[in-house]
Amino acid sequence: MVQFLHYKMSLKQKLNDFIILPRKRMKKNLTLVFLLFLNLGVFAQVKIGKNPVTITTNKVFEIEADNAKKFNVNQTDGKAYLENKPTAVPADSLLLSKVSDGEIRQMSINRLFQYMDLDGDGIPSINDPDDDGDGIPDSTDKCPLQYGCAAASDTVSTHGCPYTCFNQIDDSSNGTAVITSFDNCAVASAGSLTKGTAVGTGVTQTIQVTTSKAGSYNISATAHGVTFAGSGNLIKGTQNIILTATGTPTVAGTDTFKLNTTPNCSFTRAITSGSTNGTGDMTLVNCSNASAGSLALNKAVSGVTQTIQVNVTALGTYNLSATTNGVTFAKTGTFTTLGLQTIVLAATGTPTVQGDNVFTLNTTPNCTFTRSVGTDITISSLPAKDWGYNCNSGAQGANDLFAVGWTDIGSTFTVVGGSYRLSFSGSPLTVRGKVTAGTPTKPLKGVVQYRVVNTSTGTAYLTASSGTIEAQGCTVRSVGDFSANLSSMSGSNNTTTALPGGTYKIQIWAQSEFGGCSSGGSDFWAGCSPTKPSGGSLTLIAQ
Fold it and tell me: What band does 190 get if pLDDT is binned at 50, 70 and 90?
C-alpha cells in the first residue's frame, strides 16, 4: 500500500509534480492503478476491439470500445491517452481504480487532496488549517503539505524535504505564483483618501506584474493606517492586479506604499486633510480677518475678497471655498511655510437675495463669515422744504449768497451694509433775491446738495451736488423781490463708499445766488433763502 503524504495540488499542477511517499499513519486507503506502457522496440501497430483493422495514425497500440471511445499509445513518445474521460474534468487528474468493482475513474488532483486526511488528525484537507500537521499554519508554511518543511531553504539533506517544496509559498507573491517583475506600480489609481476618515468604497491601486509560474498571490502595502491589498490567482505572463484600500489615514500629505513582496515596488497616494481639502494641514484662527468690496443684488461680483487667518501645521496643497446665495469665495494654492499666515479668498458669482449672507468654509473643522448683499434704494417724490423767507442785509456785492444749512427731509429708510454711490434727479429749487436800492443787473442762480446720515451714529455719507445752475440770466432789476425756478436739478457722488447696515435719513442743503453782471454805486441788493418744491428722487446705488 502507498499513501500520499503532505502534498496539496492545485488544479493547474502537472501530475509529475506530486510525490508518493510511504507513511506510517494512515486514515484512508486509496489503491492507485498506474497503467504503464513499455516501448516494445518494434514498429508494429496493435489494434484490439472494434474496427480491428483500422488504427489511428502514429499509434502503436489501440483499444476501441463499441461506443468508439479509444485507449491508445503514441508511437513517438510512448504516452498513453484515454478518450473516455468525463467532460469538464481538469487536465491535472488521476486515474483511480474503484475498490468495489475495479472500475477506473478519473478525479482531479485538487479534489482528491481536498477530501484526504493527509495528517491523520480527522480533519479533511479542505477544512484543515495545518494540512501536514507540523504545527505551522498553512498560511505561513512555505511547504504546507510536507511535514517539517517550513522554509524554502529546507532541503533533503537537512529535513528530508524536497528541493522545491510542492505548492511552495513564494516571496514574490506571498502565494504559489512566481512574479519575476513588478512592471508598473502606478498603472491606475481610483478614489481618494482623507485624513481621519475611514476609506470608502472604490479606493484602489492597479499594478502590473509579469509571472513565470501561475498560482495564488496575497499582496499588500500599508502606510499610516491604510492598507492596499489583493489576493487571488495569477496566470503565467503579464497582467494587472487591483489592490483595494481599507483603514483610516492618520496623516495628511503624499504617502508612499511599498509592497510586502521580494522583489517589490512602491506607489504614492495623496491623503487630503479635512482642514484644507488638500495635502497640507492647518488650523483656522480668524475667518473675518479683513474684507474688501461689496455684494450687490443681481450684479456680478467684482473686486470682492475675504481674508482669513490660519496656522499651517503641515506643508502641502489647499483648496478652500465657501458658497452662499450664488456667490463663491475661493482660493487654491500650496503652503510652503509653516505658522500663522493669511489667505485671501476671491469672490465670483451673482447674488440673488438681498441681506446678510453667512458663508461657511468647506473644511473640517470650519468657520464662517458674513457678507451683506445690498440693493439699490430709491426714495421717490421728495417732499417740499421751506426755510421761510429771509434775506441778507442789502449791500453792494457782500451778501450775494444765501445758503440754508443741512436739513432733514423725507422719511428714514434701512440700508443693508455694503458699498454704494448716491445720485439724485428731478429735484426742483426756487432761488430768490432782493433789490433795496437802484437798478442793478443781476442773474439768479442756485445749488442743491443731498446726503445720507446714519441715524445711530450721526455720520454723514455720500454728499451729491448739482453744482451752481443759472435759473435766470443777467436782468435789470428794480427795487423789490425776485425769484426763479430750477425745475429739475440732478447730481451724483460716484465715489463708492462703504455704508454700515442700519437706519438712514436724507439731508438737503440749498443756496440762492443773486450776484454778478453789473451794478452802479447806488445799487443795493442781497441773496434770499431758497425754497424747495415737492418732487425729485434720490437713489443709493449698490456696488
Answer: very high
Is 360 in the same domain as 213? no
Same domain for 509 and 487:
yes
Read off the pLDDT band of 156 (50, 70, 90).
Answer: very low
CB atoms within 10 A of CB 401: 15
Least confident of 18-27, 285-294, 460-469: 18-27
Question: How many angstroms separate the CA atoms of 225 and 202, rounded?
Answer: 17
Assess whether 517 and 445 both reside in one domain.
yes
Domain membership of residue 24 as a residue range: 3-127
| 3-state secondary structure (DSSP) of residue 411 | strand
Amino acid at 429: L
Note the pLDDT tens digit of each residue in 326-348. Answer: 999 999 999 999 999 999 999 99
Q: Do 403 and 515 fall within a single domain? A: yes
Please give the average per-residue pLDDT across 345-364, as a whole number.
94
Residue 106: per-residue pLDDT: 60
All three cell numbers of 129, joined, read 488549517
Q: b or e along 269-289 (b: 16 or more beta carbons within 10 Å of the residue's beta carbon)?
A: bbbbbbbbbbbbbbebeebee
Residues 395, 401, 404, 410, CA torsion sign: positive
Structural domain includes residue 220: yes
Question: Residue 431: exposed, middle, or buried by beta-carbon count in 10 A (0-12, 13-18, 19+)?
Answer: buried
150 lies in a domain?
Answer: no
Q: Band of the pLDDT at 36, cuts 50, 70, 90?
A: very low
Do 241 and 324 fall within a single domain?
no
Last-in-domain residue among 373, 395, 422: 373
Count of domains forming the chain:
4
Whether residue 126 contacts residue 114, with contact meaning beta carbons closer than 8 Å, is answered with: yes
Which positions ≥6 away from 288 have C-beta within 8 Å? 306, 308, 369, 370
C-alpha cell at 502: 442700519
- Digit-coded pLDDT (tens) for 106-124: 665 555 655 666 667 778 7
Q: Are residues 479 and 389 in the same domain?
A: yes
Q: Do 529 and 384 fall into the same domain?
A: yes
Q: Are 424 and 447 in contact (CB under 8 A)?
A: no
Residues 358 and 321 both lie in one domain? yes
Strand partners, 330: 321, 346
